[in-house]
Amino acid sequence: MKIIVCENYEEMSAKCTEIFAELIKNKPDCKLGLATGSTPEGLYANLAELYKKGELDFSKVKTYNLDEYYPIKATNDQSYRYFMNDKLFNHINIDKANTFVPNGEAADPDEECRNYEKMLDAMGGVDIQLLGIGQNGHIGFNEPDEKLCCVTHLTDLTESTINANARFFNDVSEVPTKALTMGIGSIFKAKKVVLLASGKNKKDAISQLLDENLTTNNPSTMLKLHNDLVIICDKEAYGE
Ligand code: GLP
User: What integer is the mean pLDDT of 163-171?
Assistant: First the structure.
């Protein structure tokens, strides 16, 4: 595990941008595992800027997102498909047919999850999986629980996550209570995992990620078993 502690959010985003930009330059047909939430917004803005300057080409890049609310229409401005189009895909030269997000409109969510996992297996793992972290240590939508699921699955969101994400909706009652998410094993198919954390509300989750224990009560702690994990956080999330 490698940890990079940054002064602030901007520096954290810049460090992460360096890692992604280097990969995209060296491997134009790379596969990126992407995440939503407010934390990666700085990275996405930086990547769009580098594209605008002519420094990056996304024409051969493929992307695979971690999760999506269920049920939700892709056109809903709170869907993760909408978020990805709005924050990144609409600003770069990626072919949208090469961008994959679990389908929140699927009639059969279990079938959608099985197909998503099959697709991940068939493409052989992303080069980098980007992760944020929930205040309760969730990654993707793998919530703290007695058991964690290995594969892409339909899950119930915890009250803590529903409340944390309510800030993006008009009212907490509008937050979907379920989601489709890659499982811990799906995330582990990535060759490299980069986790971003910013702000003091992530401090408790990060300090558990940095201690010696594994616990399903903080799913992010499982990442300690990955052989190429980079944590990039700001001082507030690190706890200084
Ligand atoms: C959401 C997403 C996660 C994300 C987390 C943190 O629930 N499913 O992938 O990491 O929230 O979000 P934020 O970055 O806004 O704190």
Answer: 92
Give me the catalytic one of 68, 112, 127, 143.
Answer: 143
CA of 132 to the centre of ligand 1 (A): 6
Q: Does ligand 1 come within 6 angstroms of the Cβ of 136?
A: no
Measured between alpha carbons, how far is 106 from 113 in angstroms, rounded to an integer? 10
Are 153 and 120 within 8 A, CB to CB? no
Question: How far is ligand 1, taken at its centre, from the CA of residue 38, in Å?
Answer: 7
Question: Residue 232 — φ and ψ, nearest 5°?
Answer: -115, 115
What residues have CB less than 8 Å from 55, skipping those under 6 apart?
21, 25
Reported pTM:
0.97
Instruction: Give the per-residue pLDDT at 71.
Output: 96
With tokens 């999506």, the residue in question is 68
- Token pair for 154: 């339909």
Q: Which residues pair with 7 in a beta bridge?
A: none
The per-residue pLDDT for 240 is 66
Residue from 46, 67, 103, 153 carrying the catalytic annotation: 67
For residue 52, the CA-to-ligand 1 centroid distance in Å is 27
Tens of pLDDT, residue by residue over 212-227, are 999 999 999 999 999 9
- Closest ligand 1 atom to residue 39 Cα is 14
Mean pLDDT of the residues in the chain: 97
Residues 160-182: what's their mean pLDDT? 94
Closest CA to 136 of 208, 31, 213: 208
> Are 216 and 208 contacting, i.e. CB atoms less than 8 angstroms apart?
no
